[in-house]
Structure formats: C-alpha cells, structure tokens
Amino acid sequence: MLADRHVPHFEISLERYEPAIALSDAPERLREFLTIYEEIRGDKIAPARSDLDLRRLARMLPDITIMERSEPGSVIYRLMGTAVAERLGADLTGHNFLSYLDETECDRIDLGVSLVTEWPCGTFAIYQNAYASGLKVRAESIALPLDTGTGEAPFLNISLHSSQSMISFGQEQDASVIGTQWLGGVVIDLGYGVPDQSVMDRLKVGDVDADQS
User: Is residue 206 scored above 80 in pLDDT?
Assistant: First the structure.
C-alpha cells in the first residue's frame, strides 16, 4: 500500500492524537505513551521494535501487547503484558487474539488490525470486556504500527490498554471474552491517509485528520 506514497517528514507532535486523547479515561497516561512512541518513530513510517525504550515504558509494560497479523483471521499475540494476562486469566502469548473476541466483532476487529499493520494508521477503541470472574468493564486501547526491521508493511501492532472501569459484576463464566460491546473510537491518520467511508462505516469509527499535526 505504501509503494506510491510520499513519506512525509514527521515532527514530534501529539495533535493528531487529540481526538483519541479526548475520549480517554486515562489521558495523561496515553499522552506519555504517545510521546515515547513519536520520539522513537521520528521521521520513520513506524518505530522499530528493537528501538523500544523499555526503561521509559516500564510503568506501562504490564498493559502493553504486541500482535502479528500474518493473514486474515490470524492475529497472534507476540507479547502480552502481565496485567493484561491477569485480567484475561492466562498469558495468551502465541495464541490468536481473534479467538477471544465476541463472534460478532471478529471480522470488524480483524479489519481494524489490518489497517494498523498494512495501511498504516492508528486506532483508538472503547469497548466492553466480560471476564471469567463475572466482571464487565469499559476498556480502551490504542493500537499503532511497529516495524519488524524491514521498514515496510506488514507491521506489528503495538497496543496500550489504558483504562479498565467496572460496568457491572455478575456470575462467573467459562472464559473471558474481549469486545462484547462496541462503545466508540477513532482512526488516526499517521500521515498516510485513512480508509474511505465504506471501510470507516464497517469499523464504526471516525477519522482524525493528519493535517492537524
């Protein structure tokens, strides 16, 4: 997708992310993560995994995941933070993320992951999770491309899962389910545009104009 695109010069700015930050229940934490991401990214399409500053990310690492989408329907966890694993009841590194979604959300979320890994752009999502403990929460995640070292797509997907606020508490269930209800979100233009409206409608999200940054 990038072959015919002019690669713009990036300045470290969070303006492009402001609509996502405005929706967040943890805006300062999100700003901290995005600042680190943009500083590592510089003028590249996406920051390299090998350049991640783990010391600066240390406080956030428990809530970070890295996923690889090798083909439609396959989004494999390559890293799962300890807090994410604890909430889901298991470390799912090596497992297919899509297997833990509500069935009605699989196609839409697989499409969203593909935009991060192939377009590339960013996504910010607000959704409901239902954990095996019986806890239902409002959750939010920002997903951004992460270079494997080739400098081109397909990229990895690095996500920060910033906020978990209780909606209700009910009966225990056999397994945790991610994304039982969609609550909102935006697509973030990282300098390469966003999909056309038909795709945005399938995602049920808005777009963030790259010209803001």
Answer: no
Nearest to 144 by CA among 119, 164, 123, 168: 123
Q: How confident is the model at residue 209 (pLDDT cuts 50, 70, 90)?
A: low
Whether 179 and 129 have beta carbons less than 8 Å apart is answered as yes
- How far, in Å, are 13, 53, 91, 204 from residue 25 at the CA level? 21, 25, 25, 20
Report yes or no on whether pTM surpasses 0.85.
Answer: yes
Return the closest-CA partner of residue 93 out of 118, 67, 119: 67
Q: Cβ distance 124 to 186 under 8 Å? A: yes
Q: Long-range contacts: 41-45, Cβ < 8 Å, 24+?
A: 41/10, 42/10, 42/12, 43/7, 43/9, 43/10, 44/10, 44/147, 44/151, 45/2, 45/7, 45/120, 45/145, 45/147, 45/151, 45/152, 45/155, 45/192
H or E, element range at 203: helix 197-203
196: three-class secondary structure by DSSP: coil
DSSP codes, 167-180: EEE----SS-EEEE
Looking at the DSSP bridge assignments, the partners of residue 135 are 169
